Amino acid sequence: MKYLHLVWAALFRRKTRTFFTIASVLAAFLLFGLLDSVRTAFSQASESVAGANRILTMSKISFTMSLPQSLLPRIQAVPGVKEVAFANWFGGVYQDPKNFFPNEAVSENFFSVYSDFVVPPEQLAAFKSTRTGAIVGEALAQKYGWKIGDKIPLQATIFPQKDGSNAWTFDLVGIYRVADPKDRNNEQAMFFNWKYFDEARQFGNGAIGWYIEKVDDPANADRIANAIDAISANSDHETKTQSENAFTRSFVSQFADVGLIVAGIMSAVFFTLILLTGNTMAQAVRERIPELAILKTLGFSNPGVLALVLAESVLLVLLGGLAGIALAAVVVPAMSVHAGGLLPDSVRPNTWALGIGLMLAIGLVVGVLPALRGMHLKIVDALAGR
Amino acid sequence: MSALVEIRNLSKVYTRGKQKIEVLHHIDLDIAKGDFLALMGPSGSGKTTLLNLIGGLDTPSQGSLSVGGQRIDSLGEGALAKWRSEHVGFVFQFYNLLPMLTAQKNVELPLLLTKLSAAQRKQNAAIALKLVDLADRATHKPTELSGGQQQRVAIARAIVSDPDLLVCDEPTGDLDRQSAQQVLELLQMLNRDHGKTIIMVTHDPKAAEFARHTLHLDKGTLVEQAAQA
Ligand SMILES: Nc1ncnc2c1ncn2[C@@H]1O[C@H](COP(=O)(O)OP(=O)(O)OP(=O)(O)O)[C@@H](O)[C@H]1O
Ligand SMILES: [Mg+2]
Question: How far apart are CA A279 and CA B210, in angstroms?
Fold first, then answer.
């Protein structure tokens, strides 16, 4: 510790350069804090559903496996379940695959379970009475300029019609809005009648994608989820009942290996960071060769000089890195509110631990060559400026 | 007086590529404890080389070298570093202070390698600064000091751990006459009143007059040894 002031003085010998280096370390670790939090959210094993007033039941094996319709009355019979709706992922494409938005076939009572999606009563009645009726979110309608009465063609990617055609056409009968304007990203979906979908599709008839249960008391959610999963235990269609956030993550996971993506991005970022801070450290030590020579003249040992330079590079990365994750710790809770379960509500201890581990490793990697150079310098040559 | 430094048949060869340059040829020299020796000679004659060997910054190619009764020619790098920290103080032409540290902290540097507490380090450094008459500049950084003042801080750093031997390579080479005079008087005082043995390389005959003896080195050989009044 008595050497800390030496390390500190060396670090801030060139204030501007050190500042910019610390800023880039900070940016890299801010990104790390965010992405690793996403990864953490995805890798969290089975999370409790306690406190949820809506839970979802899907196949335990895979999101793409469907469930039998026969489960419906049995789930409805579970004490504490107020209402059960169900849905199937359709995956239709509007005009161009780039125009992605979720579109699902849903049971008639879907909007009753999703009471936070507000639909005017006459539109809801039209939805129930129109076989090909569809309801879309207001944001989505605005995006494509749709009005009630429009016909919306979707190109099926999974489910052809009985005649083999992939062209499905829906009649826009309603537009839903979310109650809270902050949740407008939930106005991006399209829902249509499950009955029409089920009768017209070529295969899979009668199968359900997932069930949505409204529970009477959030405090009972855990018990109810267990009771629902118990119905299908040891069957060929075992289920997993989870919170909406966990469900969203399962859903995203089928398209993307989030851990791999995060690892990929962070590898690129840290590789760049190592080159950058490595260059800074090499430069910093090159400039200070005469000073290191003096320390050795005064009797500082080779390992001592090595340790001083390594401490300097580790401190450089720690200063930026800790600030970066601290900033992430401020940003993550704020973002998590709107992230639909893709972000945890705070930066978790495992992210801090991994981050600090990375800082130490990067600091050592970046410092080792300059440190060895400082350690091996010949005093007489360095003093003579050779 | 007994000899503090004993040099026997000392040679130093530098190898540059395939070429071997013998910079010092079979030097024999005794330096008495308490001496103040000026080492003169033309540029390239090997003065710095000899001084660095005596100070344990480099090792000889041949011959023996003992300081204070200890053979230092055969010490390993680590042992030599420790020996330097305990027995030698260094003063260079360009002061070689650490620019980010205050005068006080620069003087404390050698004490970091000792077991002294922070308070003791502080106190000893303050005493050394007082000795070179710079107590009032303790909190100044090198850039806030004149050349002469910087050199006196460097001298304080050289004596703070109370070594027997001071080696000074052109300590006044970068100073104006008046600052040089102050530095030389300081060295003389350290020699006379504190018993430090001093070896000083200089190009300036006036500076050499402050020493007790002057030695001349030419092309790696000692050519004369003139005692002064
Ligand atoms: N590391 C080295 N490698 C090769 N040659 C060296 C090395 N160090 C010194 N020399 C050579 O040794 C000779 C003596 O050098 P030294 O520095 O001892 O001279 P000096 O008497 O101190 O000169 P000056 O008065 O210019 O300081 C010079 O010719 C120099 O080029
Ligand atoms: Mg020289």
Answer: 48
Report the alpha-carbon angle A18-A22-A23, nearest 5. 115
Structural domains in chain B, CATH included, are: 35-60+76-228 (3.40.50.300)
In whole angstroms, give the CA distance from residue B202 to residue B47.
9
What's the pLDDT tens digit per position in A21-56?
A: 999 999 999 999 999 988 887 776 445 565 568 899
Strand B62-67 and strand B3-16: pairing?
antiparallel
Please check whether residue B12 touches A, CB under 8 A: no
Instruction: Count other C-beta atoms under 10 Å from residue A30's C-beta.
Output: 21
Asked if pLDDT for residue A182 goes beyond 70, the answer is: no
**Is residue A380 scored above 80 in pLDDT?**
yes
Report residue A104 as tokens: 């699902």
- pTM for the model stands at 0.76
Handedness of CA B99, B103, B107, B112 (dihedral sign): negative
Task: Sort B91 into a burial class: Cβ within 10 Å, 0-12 / 13-18 / 19+.
Answer: buried
Integer Cα distance of A247 and A250 in angstroms: 5
Q: Is A386 an 8 Å CB contact of chain B?
A: no
Asked if B112 and A3 touch (Cβ cutoff 8 Å), the reply is yes
Q: ipTM of the predicted structure?
A: 0.93
A119-153 tens-digit pLDDT: 999 999 999 999 999 999 998 999 999 999 999 99
Contact A294 B96 (CB under 8 A): yes
Roughly what angle, to the nearest 10 degrees, separates helices A349-376 and A258-287? 30
Measure A290 CA to nearest chain B CA, in Å.
8
